[in-house]
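For reference, the entry.
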Amino acid sequence: MSSQVFAVHPRNPRCFIYQGEPFKILTSAEHYGAVLNADFDYEVYLREMARTGQNGTRVFTFYREKAASIPGPGPMNTLAPTPQASVMPWERVPGRGAAADGLDRFDLDRWNAAYFERLKGFVRRCGDRGVICEIVLFCNPYDQEKYDLFPCSRASNVNGVGEDLAHPQAFMTLDAPNITAFQEGFIRKIAEELNPFDNVYYEICNEPNFSGDFPEATEQKVVAWHARLARVLRETEAGLPNRHLIAANAHCVLKVSGDPSRPIVRHEDLGYFENPDIDIVNYHYISRKVVAEGLHFYQPPGKGASAGLIWHFLRRRDRFQKPIVFDETFSGIVRGALERLAVNRAEAWEMILSGGAGYSNLDWSFTQADEAGAGEVPIGDGRRLDWRPLREWLDLFRNLLERYDLAALVPAVGLVAGEVSGCGYAAATDGAGKYILYLVDEQVYHLEACAPRALTVSLALPEGRYRAWAFDPRTGEEKEMPEVRSDGTALLEVSAFSEDMAILLDLKR
């Protein structure tokens, strides 16, 4: 196996290694149709990604939506190509009836060479720019209409595949043997085609969840399905030159309390942390998960994301020696929701400094009519989305992180003594006297204006004298602060700031 392949860092499971260097995913990337949507010019997209150093992108293989599936983006959703622009892994055959998208049905025994050429071309160009591709093998069908767009739906293929599937979400279990056989064959093909690339990792399924209340036995079916497909991927790569990381998206939510005022739930993540074939555990919307106890969490009714939740969510998972990636955010936009760029900036800082191995924002500004995400063409609801500022903010953060040894950077647990009034926080240290403390006004998460605030923060800081700087996450501006002296504890006086601020501490030798 090549030593350049994207892998877990051998010294720090909160970090990856790529081409011999420590690496954390930090990116704002398009909504997953760069390959399957022929109308999307991925060269323009990747030029914009390179301009601001975005280093990760998610790639869906064949899951598609319709223009009306997500109100807001509408037809500017890259996962909603026209049928004519859809590039699928299988060939269509004329004269055998129409698939659910109105075009000819698929023959699942015939691979579409043009699809794999486009897929490999995209992955190759990503590699040229240092971009890691999260290849999402499958996706929750969500409902019958979306499932029928799957080539394996009995409505869309000529092979009889899908006849034994009782309902769409059984696609994410082992209940339908010919669906499982289809999935295993597809995994083997993708693994063989992409094995030469060093900038790839695989996610088994996006958002594998069941609608409504369901028993624990159903949840365990999802876990067993992941285990089976991960093993197929492992066995396939065992006979190939390279080994790639495998991720599971811990998205299946099981209720463990019926109290409507405190609806405690849990993910199926324990099964993924304990499975040696799963290397990475991915989550969506971590900033909305309020810790209840242990691995359980809840979301207070009527509330969305909140400052500081990421830090506490990850602390409950510190005992697991696997990378955790926040690989999809809520970016607003859908169903008329407001843009949330400041929230997304805060999430990125909180996730990486809390010990996350990656943060990936779902960037609705990238469309097949505006691949640079520059607000040149309106999305379906008429808004023009120019999210270049967010990508530039992430690049400022990335440039700051390059001043530290990412392989040594770990959460500075216990640095902040108690809570910080009105703010969330996250903190990291290299273990050798350097610290980054991030503070974010909770009003940012409420999408409300932030009045300037000054803070006094109590720190449990090892004895010594520290140089200190204030770092502005929006501009990259640094201002030297008065020296901080600690006898094991210290009071940090933070001058008035608006929205968020990072404090950099460096022990004097």
